[in-house]
Structure formats: C-alpha cells, structure tokens
Amino acid sequence: MKLSTKGRYAVMAMADLADAAEAGPVTLSDIASRQSISLSYLEQLFAKLRRADIVSSVRGPGGGYRLSRTASEIRISDIILAVDEPLRATRCSEAKGCLSDGRRCITHDLWDELGRHIYLYLSSVTLEDVLERRLFGSANGATGRLAPAATSSTRAAE
C-alpha cells in the first residue's frame, strides 16, 4: 500500500511546523519553501487541519500557524485522517465489496488486516516521536539505533 502525497505532505508540513514552532507562528510560505510543497496545496491541507483542530491560525503581522496541541498529543493518524486520507489497503468501498458483483475478493481479509496494522502503527506514533526520531524498525538503520526488542546477540552481530 502506498500513502498518497496528500497524507505524506500533510505529515511533512506538520513536522516542519512543530519543529519551527518555538519561534512563534509559522507561515505556510516558509513551510512550502523548506519542504518543496506548493503553497496552494498547503493552503488546502491546512484548511482541513484547522477544521480538525490540529492547527490554529494567527492573523496579522507575524501571523501564521501553530499547533493546537503539543506535538506529543498529535498522532500521525490524526493528521492523515484530518486531510481525508483513507487508511485502507483494500479496494472495497464501505458499502460494496471488491468484485463487480459486490462480493469480497479472496484476499480481502489480508488487505483489510494490513490496513488495520498501518492505522495502529500510525496511531502509536506522535509528531514528537517523528521530531525526536523515536521510530523503530528496519528503516532506522541510518541512525544506527536498534529497536527496543533487539538483544545483545543481535547487537553483537552488527
């Protein structure tokens, strides 16, 4: 399953906002230039994030956006769901199955369970975790950090 640009860009922009927030409200044009995301696209995403009460806007000189809650209270799944990004791996709609006659395909349960795992993982990760690089798994080899379940024999093998 591949997450669309809408979800990825929303998370990237929120991480940028959280990282720069100590200096005060952050403008979308600053986020756009740092993350190479279209300003008009960010405006659409932030309208949805504002409606979901994940960000708030500050008007006037020195205005911009800030987090509505702390980074430790904002889950990645909150961000993705706020921008209307479905977290499903099946091709089924809620009312209809995968196949043209309305039945579920033979692999429906596999993809449905994968979607649940993705949602559970993204629900377990906060914006603060992303900023502090507290993510575990095979992808963090670049940081040299081990997942908490790593044993001393695993460390010795490295």
From TrEMBL:
| Database matches in Pfam families | Rrf2 (PF02082)
What GO molecular functions are on record for this protein?
A: DNA binding; DNA-binding transcription factor activity
Q: Superkingdom of this entry's organism? A: Bacteria
**Gene3D superfamilies from the entry?**
Winged helix-like DNA-binding domain superfamily/Winged helix DNA-binding domain
Name the InterPro entries on file.
Tscrpt_reg_Rrf2, WH-like_DNA-bd_sf, WH_DNA-bd_sf
Q: Name one GO cellular component term.
A: cytosol
- What keywords tag this UniProt record? DNA-binding
Q: Could you tell me which PANTHER family the record lists for this protein?
A: HTH-TYPE TRANSCRIPTIONAL REGULATOR ISCR, WINGED HELIX-TURN-HELIX TRANSCRIPTIONAL REGULATOR, RRF2 FAMILY
Put simply, this protein is called: Transcriptional regulator, BadM/Rrf2 family
